[in-house]
Structure formats: C-alpha cells, structure tokens
Amino acid sequence: AQKITQTQPGMFVQEKEAVTLDCTYDTSDQSYGLFWYKQPSSGEMIFLIYQGSYDEQNATEGRYSLNFQKARKSANLVISASQLGDSAMYFCAMRSISGYSTLTFGKGTMLLVSP
Amino acid sequence: DAGVIQSPRHEVTEMGQEVTLRCKPISGHDYLFWYRQTMMRGLELLIYFNNNVPIDDSGMPEDRFSAKMPNASFSTLKIQPSEPRDSAVYFCASSLRQAGDTEAFFGQGTRLTVV
Questions:
Q1: A48 touches chain B (CB under 8 A)
Q2: With an 8 Å Cβ cutoff, is A23 touching chain B?
C-alpha cells in the first residue's frame, strides 16, 4: 500500500519569497512516480510537476522544483519567487509505475501568499 | 482536446433521490478514475477503470454507489438513494495507458449537495 503524508496543514509566505511544502511517502514499490497538484479556490486540480523514482536529477518546471530525497522518502515542493496567485491548496501524490496504478494523494497543504 | 469534461458542475438534490454524475475522459486515455473530495477525508479514490473495465472499486463507500464505463468516451457515477453525507466534490480524471510516470488530468469536478 502507498501512503502520502503532508504534515503542514497551512503555510504562509510573503510575495517574492521562496517556500517549501513538505511531502513524505511510503511504498514497497521499486519504481514509482511522485506528483504535485495545485487546487486554487476555484476548485480545479492542476498538475504542477513530476518526479520519477529512478530520476537522479530533481525535477524543475519554471518556478517549481521538487527536492527529491529517495533515501528519506521525501519529495518536497519548492516554489521560488512566490506570487499572490500561488495561494491555493497543494497536494502531493504518488503512483506505482508497474502494473495497474492509481494516484494516492496526501491531505494537502494550504499556502497563503501575502503582499 | 478539451480536457476531461464533467457534468453537471453543481448538483443539489434531496435526500433519497438518485444522482448521476457524468464524465468524458480525454480521447486516447485508457485509465479513468473517480475521486471524492471532502474536508474531513481529503481526496479518496472511489473506483478506476482501465480500457473501460473496472479494476478496483474497493473505494466505493457502499452499495448505493455504482459506476459504469460503457465506452471509452463516457463514464457515470450513480448514487441511489443519495444521503446528506454524500455531499462532496466528485472528480473524474483520466491518464494514458502504462502511465505510472505521467500525470492524471482532472475534470472541473461536480459539487454535490444533498439536502
């Protein structure tokens, strides 16, 4: 079974600063993918970034980067230069790469960006 | 492609009534997922299909819930009879075959309120 833990119910950051959202996971799979999604107040789920368990380099997508530490089973999301529009819920998720695979989500972290 | 399309966006119904939620996945995607989101329980996987075949329905809360995928471009989630505790946002998502390393694309969700 897979489990995602996001220990920060809420985070505050000032505009233009960087923020790290924590995510730890537990799985017995050897190959898996880790994902971050953003859910703004409008409700849609927006995919942000992906990291494969076999990737040696940390994933980056614009202002988003994923700090992947396999030995610690952590996949923290780093948002650089925060913007007001980054205020949203952020969900970490994982999926096995082999066989039938579903997305397992964490409880989420609410990020508020202040001016 | 227009993305995953869900209908209706909002549904208000009385307890005991039948509710049908609809989903059109992205063309070519072989996996379809139904998730439920509540404040208390977060994002829960209800059921998922691969090539129109239900693979795992262990997340379906009880017999009042049923899901079908009669063809590759359409799925329904039915609740009969509905109860106030079914009030939640229901998401449909789709992803590519053998896509443990690619993201799932979510619809806009259906906000269900049972009064």
A1: no
A2: no
Residue B78 near residue B89 (C-beta atoms within 8 A) = no
Residue B113 identity (one-letter amino acid): T
Residue carrying structure tokens 């009969």:
B80
Distance CA A82, CA A27 (A): 31
Please answer whether residues A65 and A51 qualify as being in contact, where contact means their C-beta atoms are separated by less than 8 angstroms.
no
The pLDDT tens digits of the residues spanning B62-98 come to: 899 999 999 999 999 999 999 999 999 999 999 986 5
CB contact under 8 A, A44 and B106: yes
Cα distances from B39 to residues A68, B57, B76, in angstroms, run: 28, 22, 23
The three-state secondary structure class of A23 is coil
Cis peptide before A9 (omega within 30 of 0): no
Q: Which of A96, A100, A103 sits opposite B50 (nearest CB)?
A: A100
What residues does A11 pair with on adjacent strands?
A: A111
Average pLDDT over residues A72-90: 97
Q: Which among A43, A50, A91 has CB closest to B43? A: A91
Distance from CA of B14 to the nearest CA of A (A): 23
Distance CA A66, CA A35 (A): 9
| C-beta pairs of B6-10 under 8 Å, 24+ apart in sequence | B6/B90, B6/B91, B6/B92, B6/B107, B6/B108, B6/B109, B6/B110, B7/B110, B8/B110, B9/B108, B9/B109, B9/B110, B9/B111, B10/B110, B10/B111, B10/B113
